[in-house]
Amino acid sequence: MYDVIIVGGGPTGIFCALEIIKYSNLKVIILERGHPIEQRLCPMRERGGECRRCPSCALVSGWGGAGAFSDGKLTLSLDAGGRLNEFLLPEEMQNLLDYADQIYLSFGNGGHLFDPSPDKVIEYTMKAQKAGLKLIPMKIRHLGTENCYEILREMEKFLKERVEIRPRAKVEEILIDKDARKVKGVMLKDGEEIKGKYVIVAPGRSGASWLEEQARKLNLGLERNPVDIGVRIEVPAAIMEDLTNTFYEAKLVYYSRSFDDKVRTFCMCPHGEVVVEWNEEEKVLSVNGHSYRNKKTDKTNFAILVSTSFTEPFHEPNLYGSHVARLANMISGSVIVQRLGDLLNGRRSTYERISRGVIEPSLREAVPGDLSFVLPFRYLQNIKEMLEAMDKLTPGIFSPFTLLYGVEVKFYSSKIKLSPVLETEVQNLFAGGDGAGITRGLMQASISGIIIGREILRREAIKP
User: CATH for 2-113+141-223+414-459?
Assistant: First the structure.
C-alpha cells in the first residue's frame, strides 16, 4: 500500500514527487511505461538510418517524458505553455514558475537565460504589428538537449534513493471505489493491482489517448482541445540570427486573411536540427526540432501550426491529425520535405532540386515530395500567408529554398474537468501535464506537479 501513486515519469510526476519528499516521508511510487533515462536509446540517432518504429519510442517515452530529448526550453513567462492561468492568479503562477526554475538550476547547468530588454521588445513588437503578426515576448531559459538530459538524469538519481521508481510498468486501468467515488489504486497491464491513497495521472502527450479512454470509463467531464497541424520550417540560421539572438524563441501569432484561422510559430530551434518522432498510440511518424547547447548547426528550424477546433458532429480531432500525418507517411514511407519554391510552383521536390538550394536538409531520412497531396488547401494557404508575414519581420524566410517538413502534429488530449488543485471528479485522483490537456511544455507541466504535491501535503496536514 502506497500513500501516493504517480503514473508517468515526466515533468509533472517528477516535480510532484520532489515536492512531496521535500517535506514528508510519504510512501511514493512512480510508474513509467518507458525506460530509465540512460536506457532511452534511439537506434536511428545512435546508428543512423531510418526510424525503426520502436514499440516505445525512446524520444517521447521514458524517464523525463518527451522533454528529456527536447531542446530544453523553460518558458518563464505567463503567456505561453498551457492553460494553468485558468486555475491560478498571475502572481501565484509567476511564483511557481520561478520556484520550478530554481529546482531545475539546483540539478545542473542552467544554460542561457534570454530576457529581452524593453527597448528590443518594443522594436520587434512594432515590426511584427506592421507585418500583421502578434509577438508574445517571453523570458526563456535554454538548457539545450544535452543539459536537459543531464538534469533529468540527476533528478532520477536523487529520487531513486527516496521513492520507488518502476520503469516499463504500463498502467492498464485506474481503480476506484464506485460507491464512494474515490480512487483506490491502479492495475498494470500484467494484472497486478497497486493500491494507494492518492493517484496522480500524468502520462504526457504520448499517453493522451489512454488518459481520455480512462476518463470516459470513469465518467469524468471532458472538454475538446483543438488539434495543431502544420509543418516544420528550416532556413539558414543567419536569416533569423537577429531575432533568435534577442528572444531565442519568438512566439508569433497570425490570423489568416483567407480563413481567419489562428496560425502560430512553435518550438523555435536556433542552430538546431529537425528530427522524427514515432507515436506508438497513433501509429504515425511526425517531425519535431531540437537545439543543443554545445553542438551548433548552420540551420534554424521552427514549426508553423494551424489550430483547428471541430464542431458537431465531429468529435475526433486527434484522429483527424493522425490521418493527415499518416498520409505523409504513406506517400513517402517517412516524412516529406519540400522546397517552398516547388510548393508554390505546384511541383514535387526531388533530391536534385533540393541539392541546388542554399540549405541541405538536417533530417536525412526525409523524402522529397509534394505536401499538397497531404495537407488540405486551407492549411497550405494559412502556412503560406504566415511565411509571407514573417518575411517582413525577418527577410529571407519566404525564399524558394526554404524547406518545409511535413507533417508536424501536436496531439492534445481532451481537457479533463479539474478543480483549482487539479483534482478530478473522483476524490484523490489528480491529473496534470500535457496528457491532461492543461499544459503544453516543460515549465507548466512541472508546476502542475508542484500544485498537486502541495495539495497532497495539505490534506496530510504537512506544512511545507
Answer: 3.50.50.60
Determine the 3-state secondary structure of 61 from DSSP. Answer: coil
Among 15, 217, 196, 13, residue whose Cα is nearest residue 101: 15
Other CB atoms within 10 A of residue 41 CB: 12
Q: In this structure, which amino acid lies at residue 86?
A: E
pLDDT at 45 (0 to 100): 64
Contact assessment for residue 138 and residue 79, using Cβ atoms and an 8 Å cutoff: yes
Distance CA 415, CA 440 (A): 12
User: Which are the contacts of 28, defined by CB distance < 8 A and separation ≥ 6?
Assistant: 2, 3, 4, 5, 6, 17, 20, 21, 162, 163, 164
pTM value is 0.90
Residue 310 has pLDDT above 60, yes or no: yes
State the Cα–Cα distance between residues 118 and 88, nearest whole angstrom. 26
pLDDT in tens, 168-194: 999 999 999 988 899 999 999 999 999
Q: What are phi and psi of 344, to 5 degrees?
A: -65, -30
The DSSP bridge pattern shows strands 299-308 and 262-269 to be antiparallel
Q: Which residues contact 397 (CB under 8 A, 6 or more apart)?
A: 233, 235, 239, 240, 387, 390, 391
Q: Show me where the domains of the chain are located.
A: 2-113+141-223+414-459, 227-410
**Pairwise CA distance, residues 132 & 35, whole Å:** 45
| Residue carrying the nine cell digits 496536514 | 461
- In this structure, the number of other CB atoms found within 10 A of the CB of residue 173 comes to 15
Per-residue burial over 383-395, b if 16 or more Cβ lie within 10 Å, else e, is: bbbbbebbbebbe
Q: Of all helices (H) and strands (E), which one includes residue 235? A: strand 227-236
Classify residue 302 by burial, with Cβ atoms within 10 Å: 0-12, 13-18, 19+: buried
**Could you count the other beta carbons within 10 Å of the beta carbon of residue 297?**
18
Instruction: Write the pLDDT tens digit of every residue in 187-211.
Output: 999 999 999 999 999 998 778 788 9
Which has the closest alpha carbon to 205: 450, 414, 429, 413?
Answer: 413
- Give the torsion through C-alpha atoms of 153, 155, 159, 165, to 10 deg: -50
Torsion of CA 312, 316, 318, 321, to 10 degrees: -70
Q: Compute CA 253 distance to the chain's CA centroid, rounded to the nearest angstrom.
A: 18
Residue recorded with cell 510532484: 16
H helix or E strand, kind and range, residue 278: strand 273-279
